């Protein structure tokens, strides 16, 4: 297994891990439209204080995502990922304060959803799997990804596992909201368990990221209760894999910078 922190003191390792937590929280939230700056994200996480001019919802998204990262690191001590663990992550990243039976927290969606995606220079509506199919489809996802014991995978194998977990989860879209953030959290278990840094997607690449996922979704068979698999490793899958692989440098840069100065 890779030892990315080899030769580094515990202090230096903590600096890297703390900065990764800040960047991971900032970029993942920014991809979903959160406007809190990197500097303010850092202040909220490090000081535990509110920042003037930031809405309560956006503040809670920062706090919640940072808490979700702590949950991910706690899960590294396990060999098996449970459905309840996924629900716990969902409750952490969601900030809905009012109870809404159509938008359950820590439970699968109960109403149909979907979104418009760009296809052939026009927007088309893509429905996500029906709520009645979610339990069945998530069982397929868990059958492949529930085993989170160390696999001693190579970097490329770990990125591919990240890609499969991410695409599988977002294609199922099991929650009313928060699917992207939960997917980026869960998929990183396989990176960290194999001794690599968490993969952080640059929010400046948001458009490319969304377009790649949309192209995949629009070129595969819709998922339902008859599906035998949830992931197709086609050209669009490979495009996403290469994109994720290229994004690893965002974390590597932080590690290299600390290594070069401490």
Polypeptide structure, described:
The two termini are 24 Å apart. The protein has one domain (10-261): Fic-like fold, CATH 1.10.3290.10. The model has no long low-confidence stretch (mean pLDDT 94). It has helices spanning 10-31, 38-47, 56-75, 83-93, 131-145, 155-172, 179-193, 206-217, 235-247, 249-261; strands at 114-119, 122-127. Strand 1 (114-119) and strand 2 (122-127) form a beta hairpin. With 262 residues, it is mainly alpha-helical. The protein is built from 10 helices and 2 strands, in the order ααααββαααααα. The protein is globular and about 55 Å long. A two-stranded antiparallel sheet has the order 1-2. The longest helix has 22 residues, at 10-31. Helix 1 runs antiparallel to helix 10.
Notable features of this structure?
single chain, 262 residues, mainly alpha, Fic-like fold, two-stranded antiparallel sheet, 10 helices, 5% strand
């Amino acid at each position: 297994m890779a030892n990315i922190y080899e030769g580094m003191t515990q202090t230096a390792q903590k600096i890297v891990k703390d900065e990764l937590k800040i960047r991971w929280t900032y970029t993942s939230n920014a991809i979903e439209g959160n406007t809190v700056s990197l500097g303010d994200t850092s202040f909220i996480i490090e000081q535990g204080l509110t920042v003037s001019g930031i809405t309560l919802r956006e503040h809670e998204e920062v706090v919640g995502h940072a808490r979700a990262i702590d949950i991910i690191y706690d899960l590294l001590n396990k060999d098996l990922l449970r459905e309840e663990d996924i629900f716990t992550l969902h409750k952490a990243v969601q900030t809905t304060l009012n109870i809404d039976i159509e938008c359950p927290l820590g439970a699968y969606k109960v109403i149909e959803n979907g979104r418009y995606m760009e296809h052939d220079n026009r927007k088309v509506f893509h429905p996500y799997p029906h709520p009645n199919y979610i339990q069945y489809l998530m069982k397929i996802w868990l059958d492949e990804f529930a085993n989170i014991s160390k696999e001693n995978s190579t970097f490329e194998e770990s990125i591919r596992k990240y890609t499969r977990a991410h695409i599988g989860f977002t294609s199922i879209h099991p929650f009313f909201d928060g699917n992207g953030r939960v997917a980026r959290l869960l998929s990183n278990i396989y990176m960290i368990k194999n001794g690599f840094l968490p993969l952080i997607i640059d929010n400046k690449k948001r458009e490319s990221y969304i377009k790649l996922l949309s192209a995949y979704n629009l070129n595969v068979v819709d998922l339902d209760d008859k599906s035998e698999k949830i992931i197709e490793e086609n050209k669009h899958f490979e495009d996403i894999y290469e994109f994720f692989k290229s994004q690893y440098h965002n974390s590597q840069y932080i590690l290299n910078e600390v290594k070069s100065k401490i």
